[in-house]
Amino acid sequence: MKKLTKIFVSAAGLLLMGFALAGSNANAASRLTYGKITNYNLHSLGTIRQLTREQIAETHNLSTKQVENLMKLSLPTHLTAKNFAIDSQNFKMHLSKNSYGIKSVAIPLNKLTGVISNHYLPKKFKYGKPKSPKKVVALTFDDGPSPTLTPKLLKTLQKYHVHATFFEVGSSVSRWPSVSRQVIKDGNVIGNHSWNHPQLTTLSNSGVESQISRTDAAIYKATKTLPEYVRPPYGSINSRVGKVYDRPSVMWSVDSRDWAYLNTQKTINHVLDTTYNGSIILMHDIHPTSVAAVPTIIKTLKKRGYTFVTLPELIQKPLLCGYQYFGRNDFRND
Ligand code: NI
């Protein structure tokens, strides 16, 4: 009798354990936190916030005011938060009540490759270090758009099948939106270079936010895309400013000094003398002498074996929020 009871008790125990296990599997998704899926990386969480803003902008017809207010939208900042689920195609974030009337945002998982740990991604979205050409370089152009020079530069880029990243100033985008539209149409990327080029570190938090969000709105109005990166004017940045705009900062490793030379041959020589593998080259598409230097720079670097790539191709990963990127294998996160 005693023995029988014991057997009965352990059978019941096993049964209970079985229920508990089934329960834990069913609830596994809801118990994931941002900490778990990012390997406890706040920079990755920041990137998820920016991807959420970009997704909202892409999938809704937002007014200028609504884009300007996107930086104020309440999005997760703690690794313990768990307002999301991952299915076979999308990362779905549930939003708290907001003025946009948006309840959830679905981000396609291919945008999260390299942001979310491989363990939580379906096989086809897992990150693997991409094979890339031996010698790479990324071209960036600041302070545009210019109504005459940017279109001229775009023709050169098209002729040589090269894409570049343009860090545009919001006040100019609002004056020449069709030029920005053409920049995107041609397959280039536009980053945020502030509204009117102040030294952001001298501004208050709300001053920085206004510089960035007004520019976001101008670029969105012109192109229906929200800029993914910021280049702070003069490279002037600190951790406070970086936190306000909540995205990657793109710096440079080769300063053409084109603005100082205002001389085509000197600009060409300086870039060709100082470019090395993995460089981010800084030029300005608002000086005729700079735009005139580009064909020779491209032709010569190609002859030297360089391939012109985009920033994520150069870095070989998505650029993460809160990092400053100077070139391949050359970035920091303070
Ligand atoms: Ni600038």
Description:
- With 334 residues, the protein is of the alpha/beta class.
- The protein has two domains: 32-125, Actin, Chain A, domain 4; 136-333, Glycoside hydrolase/deacetylase (TIM Barrel, Alpha-Beta Barrel), CATH 3.20.20.370.
- It contains 13 helices and twelve strands.
- It has helices at 2-26, 34-38, 42-59, 64-68, 149-159, 170-175, 177-185, 205-223, 239-245, 258-261, 264-274, 288-303, 311-315; strands spanning 84-86, 90-94, 104-108, 135-142, 165-168, 189-192, 249-250, 254-255, 279-284, 306-308, 324-327, 330-332.
- The strands form three sheets. Strands 4, 5, 6, 8, 9 and 10 form a six-stranded parallel sheet that branches. Strands 1-2-3 form a three-stranded antiparallel sheet. Strands 7-11-12 form a three-stranded mixed sheet, with no helix packed on it.
- A hairpin with a 2-residue loop joins strand 11 (324-327) and strand 12.
- Helix 11 packs parallel to helix 12 (288-303).
- Mean pLDDT is 92; it is low at 1-29.
